[in-house]
Specification:
This protein is an alpha+beta fold and 206 residues long. The chain has helices at residues 14-17, 86-93, 116-124, 134-141, 177-189, 191-200; strands spanning 27-31, 38-39, 44-53, 73-77, 100-104, 129-133, 148-152, 157-158, 162-163, 165-172. 25% of the residues lie in helices and 24% in strands. It starts with 13 loop residues before the first helix and ends in a 6-residue tail after the last helix.
């Protein structure tokens, strides 16, 4: 099949303006539980991660580390309420609020790679640690001028039920079962190739 790409900001109305408008047939990188379309079988699993400069030797592993109460923490935010991504909820549950700095996941579209601003802030020392979705962290950390440590957050599920690990799929239009079956077959047949490519791009895999 011939592949052609349609580029669209992944904001409100994304599925309506792409898949449902028939501007494309497949969306990459959606949660396996995606309800707005028909997901394929997952092609990888990743996690939120702590990102910090290696020369800081922080050795952060857990949301329960008491140092998080005083470190400057950068997080991605999607809206204006800072309550819509898992790390923010986990920090707020632990009353870690005043030292949290939000970076818009959307950013300024006139600049390249808006999500990279958070990882760049870690590299500059503007924040001590970032809590970032793993594929974003791994990809942008590769281009950092200083070495960065990337560590999966713990726990994987913050009880009662706040997950930080997600299975990631592609998605097709509902009813497009034939294309979905073809994509599932590709995922199954090329698992090793997919994992190799993801690793090359710095994606933390579980």
């Amino acid at each position: 099949m011939t592949v052609r790409y349609t580029w669209m900001p992944q904001r409100r109305g994304f599925v309506r303006n792409t898949l449902r408008a028939r501007r494309c047939d497949v969306i990459m990188g959606v949660p396996a539980s995606f309800e707005l379309a028909r997901p394929t079988e997952p092609y990888y699993r990743s996690t939120y991660v702590f990102v910090y400069r290696k020369d800081r030797h922080l050795q952060l592993r857990s949301f329960d580390d008491p140092r998080l109460k005083t470190l400057r923490i950068g997080v991605h935010v999607i809206g204006d309420d800072y309550a819509n991504v898992p790390p923010v909820a986990a920090l707020a549950k632990r009353h870690i609020i005043r030292n949290v700095i939000g970076f818009s996941i959307y950013g300024d579209y006139s600049q390249p790679n808006p999500p990279a601003r958070l990882v760049e802030a870690v590299a500059r020392g503007d924040v001590d640690v970032g809590i970032v979705w793993g594929p974003l962290a791994g990809y942008f950390a590769r281009g950092s001028p200083v070495p960065l440590e990337i560590v999966p957050v713990s726990p994987q599920i913050d009880l009662p039920f706040l997950p930080f690990v997600f299975d990631i799929s592609m998605a097709v239009r509902r009813g497009d079962d034939s294309l979905r079956a073809r994509l599932d077959a590709v995922v199954e047949r090329h698992q090793d190739d997919i994992r190799r490519l993801l690793a090359e791009y710095g994606v933390p895999l579980l």
